[in-house]
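Final report, closing paragraph on structural work. Over the funding period we assembled a curated collection of sequence-structure pairs, and we close with a single example.
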Amino acid sequence: MFARNAAVPVLAVIAMLVAAPARAQEVVTADAAARAALAKKLANPIASLISVPLQYNYDTYGGANDGARVNRLNIQPVIPFSLNDQWNLITRNIIPLVDQSAFPTDAMNTSGLGDITSSLFFSPKEPTAGGLIWGVGPVFLLPTATQDLLGAEKWGIGPTGVALKQTGPWTVGMLANHIWGSGGDDTRDNVNATFLQPFVSYTTQTQTTFSANTESTYDWRNSQWTVPLNVGVAQMFKIGSQIMQAQVAARYWADAPADGPEGWGLRLQLTFLFPN
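Its predicted structure, as stored:
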């Protein structure tokens, strides 16, 4: 009688031990799926997600500036605000720290803070019936450069917008703005520039994202395109409780001013994520 009753808890323990790996696998699978969804969300420039990308760019120059080098660290905090049940306000800022060296003109060999670009996107919380995600708002150019040659020394304002669609692992879209700049230093040219950034990315279930984009700028005053093509791969990971994404990308300058950047450049990016 005693042996028969004792077998009951023993069988229960064995059942728990057999079921535990399956439950653990379910938890791991659910966590991986959640992080894959987060990686895909990061591919959306106006996602309701706090992120702080630290983007390092290295480029070399040609023409009269042959051999010159520019190191640029862009600090790009993205902070969303919920306005009501239907709308978000997404703030995106680009804060550039620049180091220029090996230019033939000594005054060009300088470093410091560049001009800050600040964009505000009013975006619906839900995609359209067709799955389109979009946002529009103003963009501002702030003359924050600490050295004359690192900025336009003009205040600027204009419209900005983004539209994209996410289907399965794919994200395809376009971000654009136009800035008119005046005021500030009267000896400097006014700003009249259009920025176009078509982008495409593919995110795997292992939180790896393959991406390609251009960050093209057209200077209407000088009728000049600047067109870098960027192709990269990013991986999401976690250290302690902090979720991050690391990216490495190659850049090719398809078009630029005669004395501007040329050939191949490098981009490294580390993004800190703060999901709700």
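Residues 2-42 form the longest helix (41 residues). The mean pLDDT is 92. We thank the funder for supporting this effort.
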